[in-house]
Amino acid sequence: MVKGVGLGYRREMVSMNKEILSANIDYVEVAPENWMRMNSLYQKPLKELTENIPLSTHGLSLSLGSPDPLDIEFVKNVKSFLDAYNVESYSEHLSYCSSNGHVYDLMPIPFTYDAARYVAKRIQQVQDILERKIAIENVSYYLSPSNELNEIEFTQIVLEEAKCDLLLDVNNVYVNSINHNYDAKSFIQAMPSTAILCGHIAGHYDEDDDLKIDTHGSAVKPEVWSLLEYAYQCHGVFPTLLERDFNIPELSEMLGETGQISAIQNKFSKRPSSV
C-alpha cells in the first residue's frame, strides 16, 4: 500500500487532474463500480491520471453481509479492473447493500457470532477470486440490529477469521461513538495494528449533540482530527485518505485538509515500509 496522503477521486474532479498531479498527493482512490463499466473514452481521464500517481480502490456494492449469494461475476469484473490499472489495494465496507436487489445504502450487519463468521467466509471467497487480500472498513450505522457482540468484538472476529486487512475510518468511529455512546479511543486502541492497511477521514453533519450523520460533504471536524492523531499514536502512521463525495469545493480547500493529514503524520514515527 502506498504511504502518505490520498484523495478520493470522483468523476466530478476530472477537470482537476493537472492540479492533483502538481499537488502533494501520494495516491488517489476511486470506487471501481463508477469506472469499470465505462468505455475507454470515459476512462481516459482516469487512465491519464494514474499513469503518474498510484491508484487505490474502495468498493460500494460488494455487499459482504447480504443474505444473497455473492455476485461472482461482479467480483471478476472488479479483478479485471484492478489488473488493468495495476491496483494492489481494494477495500470494501463491513456492511451490506442488497437483499433481492440493491437498496443503495450501506446497512449494518447484525453483531452476532454467526454473522461475523458468515462475512469472514465471504471475504475469503472474494480474496480467492481477486488473488489479493482486501481491507474492510468499519462503517457508520444508526441502528444496531443485534447486541450479541459489540462493534469491537464483531470487527475483531471478522479480521481474525477472514485474514483480511482493515481500513480504519476515523470519522466513522467518531460518529458511531456519539450516536451509540461509546468511547472512540477505546475502539481505536482495540484494533490490531498489524491489520490496519490504511485509513479514511471525512466530514460529517451535526444533526444534534447526540446525533451525527456521516455525509462526506463538509470539512473534517476538529474532534476527528484529534482522533486521527490518537490513531497514529496507537498504531503508527498509516496511509490516510480524505473523502469528499459531494459539495466538492475548490481543490485548494481539499489540499488544505490533505496538508493537515500530512502535518499530523509528520509528528509521529512511520511504520516499517513492509506494512
Number of domains: 1
Write down the overall geometry: globular
**Number of extended strands:** 12
Kindly provide the radius of gyration, computed on alpha-carbon positions and rounded to a whole number of angstroms: 18 Å
The low-confidence runs, each spanning 5 or more residues with pLDDT under 50, are none
Percent range for β-strand residues: 15-25%
Order of helices and strands: EHEHEHEEEHEHEHHEEEHEH
Name of the CATH architecture: Alpha-Beta Barrel
The biggest sheet amounts to: 8 strands, parallel, barrel
Q: What is the rounded distance between the termini?
A: 8 Å
Structure classification: alpha/beta
CATH topology: TIM Barrel
Mean pLDDT: 93
The main sheet orders its strands as: 1-2-3-4-7-8-9-12
Number of helix segments?
9
The CATH superfamily appears as Divalent-metal-dependent TIM barrel enzymes
Quick one: CATH class?
Alpha Beta
